[in-house]
Amino acid sequence: MANQTGASSSFEEGLKGASESVAEFHEEKSLVKKVQHWLHKTPSAVPMIVLLASVIVFALLSDNFFRATTMSTILQQIAIVGILGCAQTIVVLTAGIDLSVGAIAVFCSVLMGQMAFTFGIPAPLAIVLGLALGTAMGAFNGFLISRLKLPPFIVTLGTWQIYLSANFIFSRNETIRSQDVAENAPSLQFWGQSIDPFGVKVLYAVFLMIALVAVLSYVLRHTAWGRHVYAVGDDQEAAQLAGVQTSRIVIQVYALAGLFCAIAGWVMIGRFGSVSPTASTGQLGNIQSITAVVIGGISLFGGRGSVIGMFFGALIVGVFEMGLRLVGTDPQWTFFLIGALIIFAVAVDQWIRKVSS
Amino acid sequence: MANQTGASSSFEEGLKGASESVAEFHEEKSLVKKVQHWLHKTPSAVPMIVLLASVIVFALLSDNFFRATTMSTILQQIAIVGILGCAQTIVVLTAGIDLSVGAIAVFCSVLMGQMAFTFGIPAPLAIVLGLALGTAMGAFNGFLISRLKLPPFIVTLGTWQIYLSANFIFSRNETIRSQDVAENAPSLQFWGQSIDPFGVKVLYAVFLMIALVAVLSYVLRHTAWGRHVYAVGDDQEAAQLAGVQTSRIVIQVYALAGLFCAIAGWVMIGRFGSVSPTASTGQLGNIQSITAVVIGGISLFGGRGSVIGMFFGALIVGVFEMGLRLVGTDPQWTFFLIGALIIFAVAVDQWIRKVSS
Amino acid sequence: MTEPILKARNLVKRYGRVTALDHCDFDLFPGEILAVIGDNGAGKSSLIKALSGAVQPNEGEITLEGRTVQFASPLEARAHGIECVYQTLAMSPALSIADNMFMGRELRKPGVMGSLFRQLDRPRMEAFARQKLNELGLMTIQNINQAVETLSGGQRQGVAVARAAAFGSKVVVLDEPTAALGVKESRRVLDLIRDVRSRGVPIILISHNMPHVFEVADRIHIHRLGKRLCVINPKEHTMSDAVAYMTGARVPEGVAA
Amino acid sequence: MTEPILKARNLVKRYGRVTALDHCDFDLFPGEILAVIGDNGAGKSSLIKALSGAVQPNEGEITLEGRTVQFASPLEARAHGIECVYQTLAMSPALSIADNMFMGRELRKPGVMGSLFRQLDRPRMEAFARQKLNELGLMTIQNINQAVETLSGGQRQGVAVARAAAFGSKVVVLDEPTAALGVKESRRVLDLIRDVRSRGVPIILISHNMPHVFEVADRIHIHRLGKRLCVINPKEHTMSDAVAYMTGARVPEGVAA
Amino acid sequence: QDPVKACIITKTDTNPFFVKMKEGATAKAEELGIELKSYAGRVDGDNEAQVAAIEACIADGAKGILLTASDTAAIVDSVQSARDAGILVIALDTPLDPIDAADATFATDNFAAGRLIGQWASATMGDAAADAKIAMLDLAISQPSVDVLRDQGFLEGFGIDLGDPNKWGDETDPRIVGNEVTAGNEEGGLTAMEALLAKDPDINVVYTINEPAAAGAYEALKAVGKEGSTLIVSVDGGCPGVQNIKDGVIGATSQQYPLEMASMGIEAIAAFAKDGTKPTPTEGKDFVDTGVMLITDKPVDGVESVDSTKGAELCWG
Ligand SMILES: Nc1ncnc2c1ncn2[C@@H]1O[C@H](COP(=O)(O)OP(=O)(O)OP(=O)(O)O)[C@@H](O)[C@H]1O
Ligand SMILES: Nc1ncnc2c1ncn2[C@@H]1O[C@H](COP(=O)(O)OP(=O)(O)OP(=O)(O)O)[C@@H](O)[C@H]1O
Ligand SMILES: [Mg+2]
Ligand SMILES: [Mg+2]
User: Fold this and answer.
1) Å between B63 CA and nearest CA of chain E
2) Position B28 pLDDT exceeds 70
3) Cis peptide leading into C252, omega within 30 of 0?
4) How far apart are alpha carbons C96 and A221 in whole angstroms?
């Protein structure tokens, strides 16, 4: 058949001897270029820079800010948002959104507490059941989204209301007091324990959050499943055509998010001592976690960003809140300034990215 | 040069006499097909079907539901959400999101009230100034989004907090009482007046909402500007390359959204009588308007959907809320069921669309 | 003649008011290169989408190796060994070349890192990707970790073609694989197609490039107005004939006008 | 020789580690058809994106009609009369064919409906779109109100080409306009290109199709590794030469290796 | 020497009640030379923000904390850690659960406040109370403790069986038309009232969680021409509320004294910072009762009350 080649496209004779080396260009290696290149390759470093800058500013504004205890307090204050942020991260990476994260967390903490107290189930079993139920709630979201093809916003808006009111109804609005938990089911408060290395109290919850972020970061970056999560968010149809089982991935992602929320619910018991159905995480957890995710540079349109960025995003908000509290502004002014600072943080982030590209 | 044609691609001789008629296929015109085709062409009809079905169901469940007064109450209850929904619609069509709609509305109502009372500006002028300030707040959002290229979610999350706390700071949390407004600045309450045709009271606010929806629908569908809004949301980069002044459109869209919010603020005074900085719309207006938009079939990824759909979406929520209140008793269960019904409504909507395509 | 490995009868696909396939037939025989040609919008892509499960036809029947099949998704078709390069390429724009090439078939590290921690073997995947791209003559890709969205049009198409060719098993479908490719790269793709056939895998090739089609095809399926108009043997017809048939300038023998 | 209407010197464009343009020069003379050819990823699209304001070069200078220009966006370039069909087509997928064709230059109804209520003249826009598409031989578009995302690959490209050709004024740039087009449709595009030139408008044509390039081009700019390698006259060189130059198989006279 | 630092943590700082409380504290703190920082939750029932605020106060080295707890049981651990850090914690307005979790409590009895208006409404209606139609406009579906206490107090005062006194909405008395939540503002009061009126247009008693909600309910009643024939009762005693009593919008309200609570709290912190003395509770109670007073222009027998003119002198903003 090679004889036809000549016939069909005689000009291809020119191909003989075509260059076979991969294109390369020389590049200057100035320091600026190197920094730029590093920033370009590690986009999660950008929120880190913003974070460090804000820590320095607040340290200058308030004497009490730059202390180990204050830092550990900030970490423990963002522990729950950080864990919910892990859940939100994987969901947002698939171009979804989960408004029910806070509600699942609170409901799970109530379920664990009520199972241990009202139904007398041993606490460790109650915890396991609580985690399983959280996963099931997340999977239910995922089912509605991937099988019935409903928009994630509506599904989780609906289940947010459903889980939250189920939580109030189930708990009869009753708070289980801290002393009772400590006496009868101390394992519920596990994450509220702390180590105290140099006189600085650090909650187990903080280590848990960091561990979850690290594991999730590994999974997203270094496993096939993680790549598939990105692919689904990037272009769901393309991923499907390329052989990703998109609807299975979506269900798994929401179920895993539910599990993270249930873990957050368990951590809430440790952090607050008591089991309270009215915890405001139920109302605000979604906005807080989405804020962390977006400040961390994850695109709400899916497929772009990293969980490390989310972690820095949560930290930035935590630092701003604590810093403004210590500087002592009036609450309304604090809200005002937090609003302004969040915009400012993201503006600086964008600016660094632009300069570095 | 025509002589070269032969040389370069001899096979093109086969083109002579190529068919010149536009392809056509015969099609059966069964009734089912016709309905399908109509639904396909008028996607906003789908939420309307869901709406009618739910009205019928609630009418069967509760005697008090299918009454003219109840219907007019539902309409007046969704008037504000409907107007905020107009604002949210244009923003979401550009693939944005505006979390600050409720805050702008409340802040504008407070600005109008305070200008008229504290500063003694004549009420009509206070209204004009309030509308202008609302537009400016929206334009500020648009500026940050289009010029600094910040994500709309973060910008409006920030300005939500900023406008809301400015509202509290500015008003010193003081409510202007209905009686005082009626006495000294009745034009602030203009939209609270009503006509009473057959013993059924219908607020001016309801007519305003319907008029705004109609005008916006015309603008989006039948003017170049409207098409550009869709193009920006569909694929901003493509729109830019195709010659749309995307960043100008984005600023205009947010400014117009601000104007709609300010109008909603004015309507709030009419509807509630008093001027209150604590109105729940400041907190919930964004979620409510986004819900209406999404139930109405507008994609949060931009470029797809119609404002009429949003209107039906707002009505569906209004009907569910009123219907469940009339049927049930406990607010917690009502909240639960509203969540479930919203998901159900969207599922039915999707199902009809699937069947009709 | 042997039985067709992939056969379709009376396929109909409508999108709202638009008819894309209008009672279309199709046959692919084992080990052959079947070209599908036709005007723009004739329904070629719709045909192979229907065959590979990417869309569900409204009517008609598809048989694979004699058994009636109904693919609900491209995944099912792939499980039956049908590998496609779609005209839209089906790539995840933000992911890297290697990630895209191995999507759904990732390589894992040897040892515990792979089996227990399920870690991807990035270096191996990258080396493989680089090699496949070099084989296609795409020497201009400077950074193998580039996101696919930053590739040039031709480079992107090259990645998609390399993926299908490397992994196809029973049937390989290529929808305009050389549209964006340069002279050298197109030539390599044609060589590749012959390679694949020599492994015994039949190929469906959609192309608008008549010289290419007549060079490699064993049979040519001419598509017109959503139907198979006729099937011709490239040795018995000229390119000119084929063009005349597909544009409606002439009606082939044995077909009613 | 006259002065070039569009000229570029020493353009450099880097994306992170990737160099797309490496001190590239460019000249377009009034009233000519200039073809730009080169391997995939040679930097052709980057070159015209830099010329039309879609990307900002890191270094280098562009002059239009003798004046130095810097386009911050394609809109500015268009204001100077440069009209482009990008390789990615730049269409709004969810909008209709007519909406896309008239994007940014919509027609309004006559009378008050148009001037006061600014209502679009849908029927006129649709009729115009249909006519342009028929001129391109795209007879398979059954529904002129179809969303562009539902068009076949070739139909979509046809819409983009029709748009540029209908509205270009000073310079028309076509990046692989016939890549997805069929035989008939490609032929029509070549005719169209000649039409546009006969209106006195110069054209930059990027293409991998050598016969097409040699058929219509007045001069051929050969791009290699981000640079202009040389400019040849199609009457003085064979296709084979051009292919050899662009793939690096041979070095043209007067160029250091 | 550094000035004494103190914190005031309120449930929200949008509700005028808490705004005034903060203003009272700020004024007193300035007078005594105390550096006061104020914190608040974002929504009603926001326990987490209060925990974070206490942590900030500890980090800041405050001497005393004034706290109106959103979740009276859940906050106890954080309060304990503040006390462990040597901080005087005073519960304002709402006692903690258990009440001795705080060093002292300066509070109004919200249940008693509810009971007063309940008794007043029942007495005003006389025999007609037996077939009253009551609308209950509550705060939020999460049922924070003020919400429950005021609601249940009202019902007890009116003579209705409470069911579970820790929960509203579980009553079976047919006189109750329904419960709706209002978020404690005019908007919520209006929409909730409209819904209840659609359910039963014959409503003639309206309990409201606070005066803004009452104003909203009044607008809804006015719209159907029933503003004259319906009793509206409320709790708070803010100046606009008292003005509304005078104008006949609200029938009766239970007045509370946030300014006083707050300034007493600041004084207690000043005393504690000076020599470590802690305040002592009101005799016979386990908290310092800052009192509650029924304000109405239509007094009834058996329920002590003052009129709106007197109420306007005592009102808090
Ligand atoms: N989702 C859709 N909705 C409506 N019409 C569609 C859709 N997809 C394809 N079509 C129409 O079906 C017809 C066939 O399209 P198809 O993509 O199969 O053509 P093709 O032969 O592959 O053309 P090309 O050579 O240009 O790729 C076209 O007229 C197209 O407009
Ligand atoms: N945004 C980007 N980021 C990184 N690299 C890029 C980006 N855009 C283009 N490139 C690289 O620049 C080089 C030139 O790309 P360009 O699109 O100009 O090639 P081309 O000559 O048009 O190729 P083709 O013929 O395939 O269209 C390629 O190696 C490409 O990978
Ligand atoms: Mg095709
Ligand atoms: Mg290109």
Assistant:
1) 9
2) no
3) no
4) 12
How much is the average pLDDT of A336-340? 91
User: Which residue CA neighbors atom 6 of ligand 1 most closely?
Assistant: D150
- The stretch E241-269 carries a mean pLDDT of 91
Which of the residue ranges A28-37, A129-138, C193-202, D170-179 would you say has the lowest mean pLDDT? Answer: A28-37
The mean predicted confidence, pLDDT, of chain A is 89
ipTM, 2 dp = 0.91
Cross-chain residue pair B16–C17, CB shorter than 8 Å: no
Architecture of the domain made up of D6-92+156-247? 3-Layer(aba) Sandwich (3.40)
Mean pLDDT on A133-143: 97
Per-domain residue ranges for chain A? 42-351
Q: Would you say how long chain B is, in residues?
A: 357
How distant, in Å, are the alpha carbons of B327, D195, E89 from that of E267?
Answer: 52, 92, 13
pLDDT for res A5: 39
Is the confidence at residue A33, as pLDDT, over 60? yes
Confirm whether pTM is higher than 0.90: yes
More confident residue, A74 or B63: A74
The yes-or-no verdict on residue A107 having pLDDT over 80 is yes
Q: In the beta sheet, which residues pair with residue C68?
A: C63
Ligand 2 lined by D41 (C-beta under 6 Å)? yes
3-state secondary structure of D218: coil
d(CA A221, CA E28): 57
Pairing of strands C6-15, A202-203: unpaired
Cα separation, E141 vs E153, in Å, equals 18
Q: Residue B18 and residue C41: Cβ atoms within 8 Å?
A: no
- For ligand 2, say whether the CB of D43 is within 6 Å of any of its atoms: yes
Q: Which of C92, C142, C184 sits opposite A235 (nearest CB)?
A: C92
Cα B117 to Cα B80, D61, D167, E239: the distances in Å are: 23, 61, 57, 17
CATH number attached to the domain at A42-351: 1.10.3470
Q: How far apart are CA A176 and CA A185, in angstroms?
A: 11
The contact set of B with E (CB < 8 A) is 64, 69-70, 73, 76-77, 168, 172-175, 177-179, 194, 201, 268, 271-274, 276-281, 283, 321-322, 325-326, 329-332, 335
- Beta-bridge mates of residue E67: E9, E91
- Joined together, the tokens standing for residue D141 give 């578009």
Atom of ligand 2 at shortest range from CA of C141: 29
pLDDT for residue A8: 47
Nearest CB to E199 within list B174, B321, B325: B325
Q: Provide Rg for chain D, Cα atoms.
A: 19
Q: Rounded to 5 degrees, what are φ and ψ at E207? A: -90, 135
- Nearest CA owner, ligand 1 atom 2: D150
Contact B235 D95 (CB under 8 A): no
The yes-or-no verdict on residue C257 having pLDDT over 60 is no
Alpha helices in chain B (DSSP H): 2-8, 31-41, 45-61, 68-93, 101-117, 123-146, 152-171, 178-184, 204-222, 224-234, 236-241, 246-272, 281-295, 307-327, 331-356
For the record, the structure tokens of D22 come out as 């490496």
Q: How far apart are CA D200 and CA D172, in angstroms?
A: 11
So where are chain D's domains? Answer: 6-92+156-247, 95-146
What residues of C are in contact with residue D151 (Cβ under 8 Å)?
A: 41
The tokens describing D155, both together, are 């139909």
Q: CB of A16 within 8 A of CB of A281? A: no
Mean pLDDT for the stretch of residues C21-42: 94
Q: How confident is the model at residue A31 (pLDDT cuts 50, 70, 90)?
A: confident
Q: Which residues of C touch A25 (CB under 8 A)?
A: 142
- Residue numbers in A near D232 (CB within 8 A): none
Name the residue facing C95 among A14, A15, A227 (closest C-beta). Answer: A227
